[in-house]
Amino acid sequence: PDPMTRPTRAIALQGASNFRDLGGYPGLGGRTVRWRRLFRSDHLARLSAQDQQALAGLGIARAVDLRGEAERNALAYALPGVQYHPLTIEPTVVQRIQEVLRSGASLSPQDAAGLMQDTYRGFVHDNAPRFAALLRMLVERDDPLVFHCTAGKDRTGFAAALILLALGVPREVVMQDYLLTNALYRPPASLASHTPPEVMQVLCGVQEDFLDAALHMVDAQYGGITPYLEDVLGLDAAARSALAQRYLQAE
């Protein structure tokens, strides 16, 4: 399609900064991911009335919240006409960093990056049931859905990577989508805590080696994305084909 008529990927909202469409990427058999079906975001608790109208205009019917319980309770939301589905993934990295700092140890940017990589490895096996549940929801029906966590970058980033890889989007394109967070996400001012700024920079952004840590584990332990999707996430060939049918443009 003519780039001038293509939908915009990043959707500007007042109360969320990392809201974007997963459409337009090349998938299986040269078909592209359909626009205005799959959205990823940071949390939706601060949306303005105008933002809510924008979401209604996009036809969003389902919201999947990947935040932990305390995060959800602190910033709860309900959107009119949108079905709400919590799939709890507790934010381990934040807790581990607080433990390190409370113990009086100092934390370098390298330590922070190491903790982030561990978090992503944790997604692969510890949190597989939640990602499996999200994929099942996508296979069942294709009414527009947004999935998010707090910042929309780690739990959401891994979820987006799984969905795109399941649709046959090349890894390097999946990585480009993942890294868009660095251009879009605006951390809340309240985050400027006792954590050194160079460490905050690591924690508030994404790096290739975070997602790579998870994908390397998928390759090393499960033999690649297809066996991982099948054996761990329950997405067999029929389900993958249904997913492609729903979310890839007809040729």
Fold and architecture overview:
The protein is α/β, with parallel strands linked by helices and 251 residues long. The protein is 49% helix and 7% strand. It has helices at 49-57, 69-74, 92-102, 109-125, 128-140, 155-166, 171-179, 181-184, 197-203, 208-222, 225-232, 237-247; strands at 20-21, 38-41, 62-65, 83-86, 145-148. It has a five-stranded mixed β-sheet with strand order 1-2-5-3-4, covered by helices on one side. Helix 2 links the parallel strand 3 (62-65) and strand 4. Helix 4 packs parallel to helix 9 (197-203), helix 5 packs across helix 12 and helix 10 (208-222) packs across helix 11 (225-232).
Secondary-structure blueprint:
Layout (H helix, E strand, L loop, with lengths): L19 E2 L16 E4 L7 H9 L4 E4 L3 H6 L8 E4 L5 H11 L6 H17 L2 H13 L4 E4 L6 H12 L4 H9 L1 H4 L12 H7 L4 H15 L2 H8 L4 H11 L4
Parallel strand pairs: 2-5, 3-4, 3-5
Antiparallel strand pairs: 1-2
Helix pairs in contact: 3-4, 4-9, 4-10, 5-12, 6-7, 10-11
